[in-house]
Amino acid sequence: MAQSPTTFYSASAGSGKTYTLAQDYLTLLFKNSYSNGYRKILAVTFTNKAVGEMKERILEYLYKFTFEELEDSVKGIATHIQNETGLNGEQFRKKAQAIFNQLLHDYSAFDIVTIDSFNHRILRTFAKDIDLPDNFEVELDSKRLISKAIHNLIARAGKDKKLTQLLVDFSILKIEEGKSWDIEYDLQDIAKLILNENHYPYLKQLKGKEVEDFLRFRESLYKKINTTQKQLAEKAKALVELSQNSNIDPTDFKGGSRSIFNTVIKVASEDFSVGLDTASVRDLAAGDLYPKGKSQDIKDRIDQIAGEIQSFAIQYKENMGAVLFYKNIASSLTPLSLLNELLHEIDQIKINEQKVPIYEFNALLAEQIKDQPAPFIYERLGERYRHYFIDEFQDTSRMQWENLSPLIENELQQQRENQVPGTLMLVGDAKQSIYRFRGGDADQFLRLLATPDLFMLPKKEETLAFNWRSYDHIIDFNNQFFDSYGDHLSSDVYKTLYKEYLKQETRSKEGGFIQIDFIEKDFEAPYEEDDYASVYPYHVHQQVLKAQASGFSLGEICVLVRANKDGHEIAKYLVSQDMRVVSGDSLLVHASHKVQLLVSLMKMIQAPDQQQPRFEFLMAYTKVFQLEDIHSFVTAYLHESLQALGEKLMGWEEEDLGSAFAKAALFQATEHVAESLGLFKEQDTRLQSFMEFLFEYSTGYEVSLSGFIEHWELKMDKLSVPAAADADAVQIMTIHKSKGLEFPVVIVPHCDKKLDEARNPTGWVEVNETEYEGFDQVYISLKKENEHYPELAPEVYAQHLAKAEMDQINTLYVAFTRAREQLYISAIETTSKTASYATLLKEFVQNKGLELKSGNGFQTAEIGDVARKSEVTKPEQSEMLKEYKIHLDKERLTISTRRGLLWASGASEAIQKGNVLHEYLSLIQFSIDYNEVSHKIDRDFSLSKAEQKEMKAMISSVIYHPDLIAYFKEGIKVLNEQPILLPSGQRLIPDRVVMINDCAVVMDYKTGAVLDKHKSQVNEYANLLESMNIKVVEKVLIYTDTLEIVKWNG
């Protein structure tokens, strides 16, 4: 561990960041005199997945440190810790055992957490101080909150005259822009500002404004526009008259028949369409007024009025720059005023529902808590941290850092006797900052990196120089390409980043292959159907075939795209070519025909007289049951009654569809319909996910059919099922989702973006409130004309361009560095001189002297040997325990809460506790799932706080038990509570079956005394699996109340 209190790790892609974090964390644990040193450490990262991975890594190391013979995988880190602490082998092993045991029994104090969960803890502690309800809930679904606010806002139309006028104005504005008058989509779009904390200080000030303030401001802007243009027109008219009096014809000026003086004539006629960057305006402003060949007499006459012309042109640029600025501001005022009203609606919903949106955490802390003395905050938290780890610091927002830094500074500046000094470890890589749209601030990381100290204390900077992920050619290509790309960045700071913090060393993994394809602009892909927007789906298919031919399986290939729609097209084509694909679309729950059938049925019941939902139901039916004569089927049933549909399609004699949903709860009615349709005969993960989604809705919302349909349509685009880790299928995902992952083969199509491209960029400009009706900042669209605006707008635009360039290069860097062994890149050939991915790739190929081979509609440059270098590993296939059938009980269960039953007295205590523990253990496949299950327990209000803590401790004791930890390690195949139905109808349900190397381990959880009948039960499960040709190598009984483990093989 570094002697300086602060260590900055600059960790490029594949540089072993997690290993370094774990090493430094463990070193601190071993340096501490006590085995509970973890209580003084706070490690913060950004996702639950990262939290789980880090915790699992720490525990795995500690467990392996307890072996007398250390495994090769931990020898390096063990040696480092022993060198830092002076412990000998036996002392080291004993200390590891003590820390490991202590952690398992004190798991809730193992504070590797997301920054949101830490903020949540602070907010809970200070809830009363900042007027939050004691029992406030965290609103994770920001989209739901915003949609409800928009719905409430629109519902006020017709009742609130000023708001109604705003809504009408907004609709008219959209129509004038050639868009739909429907404003809901645009309100959703501008409401995204609420979710990005970079906009928070501006929106906060707007909340003090009323509708009248916006209307008054807009009126004043239009007055300025009219006044300015009228003045310009009057001056232009005077100039035209002056030229006429001077006997100068417009054709005497430069341009002849296309005279530059026509600009003045247009303005005189109140035509202000002449652009400020046109050649005529530039020449007029520069005094370049006539061609060299003109007679001296004409030149002399023009020279006499040249000063007035030049002055007018300069004034035109300046005044029209202001006019464009005013128009830009005015166009945003109506949406902003509606956004302001939306913020008030959200505030009201928060009060009514007693919820705090997660996006407000940082702002609440910044406003209410960060100025409290650090000792006071620690006292209220009940913890005092001495050591801080912040991972992915490049994605930390400015507000997040400002909230954490007082706590950190307080500890770093204090020295305590006989204690390890306070420390801070920051890990990040500004080249991988791709979340600026969520508030991530890479500039903050770069600023702190550039300063010689932090909190007036020296800091140490370390660069993780080696790339442990990729093969040599991949590393060298990325070093050289992004070094040359960096030369094209306009910001010197960002140039320095890609010059000084780019180059990575190789680790002698010789080989690797890169293919760069430039597709001919007029190339037409041989699609059978003309419904693909580009040639990329066809071209990606060719690249996949090449990777397969070089020895890679489909499951080792990942296609990275910028937009989901691009991924959808590629997935669609690959599937049409009989390739297995795993993508966001293929995993979406609503892509299931069975789910579509149930949802369309609900819509049909809600609106029985409408034809569209009935048609959708019948079409979904034909897909589920693979009917061939679709036309005849739809025609036959389109006009049938709900009762007739129930009789003919579901075999109901006394029920009809409408009454089924009227008489039963929504979940039970849907379950009954699905059973009647036979939808449960085969396992369908997406149908199961839909039913779980419906159940969660039924328990968490005011239940109605219309309410669920609205809730479903709000959520359906995000609801998906996880992909099987071992699926032999091409993965397709966005570059943003790939961050932190790696793949043997990466394919990156659509490399055509401009270097400063951004989608509808906007920004805030500070202005003088006395000149702008009390507004001290204005919201504008960012575009090239901003360069001519007054105030600070040109500077804001320049900053935007630099950041947009950074976003683009970082996105490409993340994509290219996901590859371990092969990287395929493709772009459409371009002759444009505008800097883009394609032009820089072509420039790179030419500068490196790489040979371009032509053929099949594209040119190709290759680096390295395409033949596979890595060992071929056979992917393990998931074993499915197939059921003979699934049936649902006709008699519905009565559900009661557990409060009052738990932790009772006598024998029932162990039984009830075991049942609840069993329920939560069934949710855990791998130890990495503990964090999510822990959050579920925290939200289980049938348990007291003490019971929740005990439950979490019991679970961690099971999954991290030295004799069981191997069965909860990520990467194995797990089947929890998978029912097996015998031909007799009997259901056997083993608690947990773990598949390792095509063999099974059968596990069952029990409480109480060890009984022979428990063994008999597990043996019965094992015998059944053996009859299905699944070899059982071990049987395990886990007594959760005593942590007694019974294993046997016979």
TrEMBL record:
Binding site for ATP: A11, S12, A13, G14, S15, G16, K17, T18
A GO cellular-component term linked to this record: cytosol
Keywords: ATP-binding, Helicase, Hydrolase, Isomerase, Nucleotide-binding
Residue span(s) of domain UvrD-like helicase ATP-binding: 1-471
Record's catalysed reaction(s): Couples ATP hydrolysis with the unwinding of duplex DNA by translocating in the 3'-5' direction; ATP + H2O = ADP + phosphate + H(+)
UniProt KW Nucleotide-binding keyword: yes
Protein's name according to its UniProt entry: DNA 3'-5' helicase
Organism of provenance: Nonlabens dokdonensis (strain DSM 17205 / KCTC 12402 / DSW-6)
